[in-house]
Amino acid sequence: MPIFIMILVLMLSISCSTETVQTKNIGDLQLDMSTEPDPLEVGEPALIKLNVEKTGKSVSQCQIRFRQHMPGMEMKDDNTYTEMKEQADSGKYQGHGLPYHMGGDWEIEFEVKCGDAALQKAGFPYHIKWPE
Ligand SMILES: [Cu+2]
Questions:
Q1: Taking the domains of the chain in order of start, what are their residue ranges?
Q2: 37 Cα: distance to centroid of ligand 1 (angstroms)
Q3: What's the predicted TM-score (pTM) here?
Q4: Which of 78, 99, 103, 119 has its CA 20 to 30 A from that of 71?
């Protein structure tokens, strides 16, 4: 294989493995959200991943659920929540959401309850493109 093709393949594999992470702070918690697929796609359910940290350390055993909705547009699944499962006390939580039925401005809203702290909500805006 010519060297330039090898370099091209290498570059493609690197760019595919970089995931987009959105960060948000609520109280003293830092939430990092990423998705598979990345970016989100119309008509596809996605794996939503949330890492929870407090002053740089992962926070374990939180109860987290999320819903997906389009602000300004009422839809039947607006209040359907997905419970997230923690990956072996890692502070990394995952859950499969519902498919996104249309392109536009969505919000993925998390409800996070860690230990004795009060339940907190955090919304991540997400624009989903219509397929070409
Ligand atoms: Cu809609």
A1: 20-128
A2: 19
A3: 0.85
A4: 119
20 CA distance to ligand 1 centroid (A)? Answer: 23
In degrees, rounded to 5, the angle at the alpha carbon of residue 124 between the alpha carbons of residues 28 and 49 is 80
Around ion ligand 1, residues with a beta carbon closer than 5 Å are 70, 73, 102
Q: Which is more confident, 2 or 121?
A: 121
- For the purposes of burial, counting CB atoms within 10 Å of the CB of 107, is it exposed (0-12), middle (13-18) or buried (19 or more)? middle
Predicted confidence band at 36 (pLDDT cuts at 50, 70, 90)? very high
DSSP single-letter state for residue 83: E
User: From ligand 1's centre to the CA of 75, what distance in Å?
Assistant: 7
How many angstroms does the Cα of residue 6 sit away from the middle of ligand 1?
43
The sign one gets for the Cα dihedral 55, 58, 64, 65 is: positive
Structure confidence at residue 18 (pLDDT): 77
Question: Comparing C-alpha atoms, which of 79, 65, 60 is closest to residue 121?
Answer: 65
Furthest C-alpha separation in the chain:
59
The DSSP code for 55 is: T
Q: In the numeric block, which tokens belong to residue 127?
A: 């624009």
